[in-house]
Amino acid sequence: MSFVDLATLTLHRRNELEARTKVFLSKCDQAIDDIQKLKVQAQSFASKLNCEPSELKERFLKCMEQLDEYMYLITDFNLSVNTLEEINTTEIAPVHDSTTKTPLPTPRSCPINLIDVLSEPLPSTSTACSNHCPSEKPKRLKVPKEDQLLIAFSSTSCSSESVPQDKIEMRTKEVQCEITADMNSLKIKAPQTPIRDLESCNLPAQKILLTDHLYKATIMSIDGASFWVITDNVDEVCGLMKDMTEFYKSTHFDLTLDEISMLSYCAFCDEDCFYRAFFIKLIEEEEEMLAEVFLVDTGEVRTGLVTNVQPLEPQFCTRPPYARCCHLAGIDMLSYQNKELSVKQAIFMKEYMGISCTIEIDDNTSESLGVYVILPSKVVLNDVLIKEGLALPIDKPKSDLRQIEGPPELIKEEDDEMDIGQSPEFEDPVEAVTGYSNRDEADICKHYKGGPEKTCFKGTRCNKKHVRKHPDGWTLDRVEVPVKIRSLPLPPLDSWHRVLVTYVCHFDRLYVQFVNNEQDDPVPSFGIILPPATLTALVRDMNSPASRMAYKQLTISPALGELVAALYPLDNQWYRARVLTVSRSDQNIEVMYVDYGNVVWVKEDQIRVLDPCYLSLPTQAVRCVLAGVFAKTTCSKQWVEAKTALARMAQDRTLDAHIVGRDYDELIVELFDDEGYSIAEQLAAHDVIELREYVINDDTKTTHKIVPA
Fold it and tell me: pTM score > 0.85 for this model?
């Protein structure tokens, strides 16, 4: 029989357990990384559906299958963990550890806090201890027989057998009794001042205003591009303020700074009048403590002494806030670009403070309502700002509903007779995703199974098309869209031209139009319609009233590279454009206007089908590279500064261009202003740009060129 010291055995077992624990922790970290990868892959499934219609069904089914597998894995993992928690009731072996104290036995259903301890009823049995001590009869431990011992411990080892059990139990009872006696000696002091019920001081929510409806309103305050209006009766607001002033003049509450900071809604006194307010913060200024609040009934932010703040009583919380935040719809204030313009806008808007007007709700999806303000003189304030040059239009102004007077319930809208039950149900997945209804399946014979005979069982009597369909049943027809348009022939080398810079896209690249003394199109004979031959005639024809009414919307999502008619948001005019990017998530499309070179994101409803008669004129914008212009560093911020400087010198200006090189679709040029100064040399005055020598390569005799992929 061998004798092993218990401390040595415990050390070996602890080292072994720590090693196994490290392995388990490493596997846990790996599992966390794998779960994170599954989350990232699952979030990318939706973006995989931006594909061709022929691949949509296959990708959708594959993503759903993978998502189901991920769901099964996570469910199995969660069920396994829950099962382990339920069955993990294994008792710890009673081995003495010198580093930890002897744990106390857990009392039966002991309450958590002191209040529950003092108020918990005691059991009615006479054998139970009033201090929740364990029973006198300890639980019998299962001790193995002497002949079944595998390891016999020496008398010098410190084990549980060497300590008498009755002493441990007596010590446990003494410790529990001491704890219970200390808990009984505790006394909980009630607060001297009762805590106010702050939840009862919350105001109810405002009623949602309907879009395309007219409401009587009063402008109360103006804060930059936003302003606050009251759509209810102003006399009702004044009556509420009078009642609050009378109440708080006779009743005053002394509040500490901590109690004030805990308030959400409060009553605020300013100029001997009380308002309902929302507490913002405390401000310490010149040895005085001030309170900053927001008046919910007027929309103003005011500051005053903390003594002016009172708790809001429940009788003043029955009505929602009267002030509503609004902004002018259909216009761009441009106050974020020009501080002087923002000051002019604020001065101009403050002239209309306190007047009664009529507002038409255009957007109620956010906290700030987009409205059209109709002044008493029947003039729309949104249009006045545009005429004054303080804003730019971004949407078509609504003039039909703004001229209608009367309450909202008497205004009849065109969409009132529309039955939602008559809306079509998309059973075809292609039509649901792309908006395109396939037409070729009606002409394809469904009985044809393939084969050399190229016919079905009907033989020559069948007048359907005998072609094999896609195995998944997808449509086979296609829709042709315009993607090709002629470009201007590049001028010869070492020639001079007058150009108009239309767009600066980089610090050394820009788009230009060749300036020609364009004359008006010749008047054709009666009954003959000719396509426009100049850019001026093209723009005039595309934006004529007849052309605007004849534009057709796209039946399917635009393809990359497709030529369309796109609306330019800044001047509300239609131009030729090429689709660069399609974002199905927010229905935005990135287009490049082929006659000007600028790239803009537009909404999907601002795209129309381009009429074929507008494809005959070549693209008027030519991309050019400034000869010898290079950047000294690779810092993107310095590139932006150089691009801004080039746009300031050349944007929308007519310059002289010297052609020094030609590429596949761009020119290498030197630009000079009207005074003969080089644009490149002026640009090199910045520390970011440097000029290098270049050579004019004559390619007049070159017949073939290799275009890099």
Answer: no
